[in-house]
Amino acid sequence: MIPTPRTGNAARLVAFMERVWDTGDTSAIPAFIADAYTIHSDPGDPWDGQTLTRAEFVERLAVSRTPFPDLRFELGDVVADGDTVAISWIMRGTQTGPLMGRPASGRSIAVRGMTMYYFADGLITGHRQIVDRIAVAQQLGLMG
Question: Which of 10, 53, 110, 122 has a CA that sits 20 to 30 A from residue 87's CA?
Answer without folding.
Answer: 53
